Structures
1.
Amino acid sequence: MPDTIHTEYPREQPAYDANEGSPSNSDARGAMIAGLVGAVVGAAGYLIYQRLPDEQRERLQRQVRTLIDQKVAELRQNFQI
C-alpha cells in the first residue's frame, strides 16, 4: 500500500467560451450597456420635454400625476393599507 494517496480530478471545460470572458464579465458588460442605453434615452426624453410648449408640459404633468395616483391607489388596495 502506498504511503500517499494521489487523486486526480478531471479537468472540466469552462461553461463559457475563452473569448467571451467569464460569466460575471458578460453580466457586467450587459449592465453597463443597459445603463448607457438608459442614460441616452433619459437625456433624449429630457431634451424633448424641454422643447415642449408650456401647455403641453402642464398636460403631460397632469397625466403623469393621474397615473401615479391611480397606481398608488391600486397598491394601497392590493396591500389593504
2.
Amino acid sequence: MNITSENIDVRSDHYYGTSSIFFKIKGYLSTYSCGIAAKAWKDKASENHEKHLLVLDLTKMVGHESSSRQLLANTIASTSRRVKAVVIISDSLLHRLYLRLLLRSVSSPVIIHKSENQLSVIRAQLMAS
C-alpha cells in the first residue's frame, strides 16, 4: 500500500522484522489528511490478525489541527489489538512529549527516535543479530 498526498505519505514496510505501516507527515496535518491516514491504517489492520508497527515520522510536520490529533489518538486506541508498537520519529521535543501523553491510553509500547537515521541504525543492528 502506498498513498501520497500533499501533507502525508503512507506506505507498508517492515521495521524490526515485522509488518509496519509508515506515515510521513509533511507540513501541516489537517483533519482531512489525518482521515486519509486513519483509513489506511484501519484497512491494513482489518486485512489480517497480525500485529503491526505504526511508524509516525513527524520530522517534516510544522503544525496540526487539534481535531486531527484527536482523530489520530482515537484511531490508534480503537485498533489497539492490531498495534505491536507505535514508533515516533521527531526532532521536536514538544511533538515527542505531546504524543507520548496522547498515546498513554494505548497498551502498546511507544518507541521514540529523534531522526529516521537513528531508526535506521537500530534497524540495521537488529537485522544483523
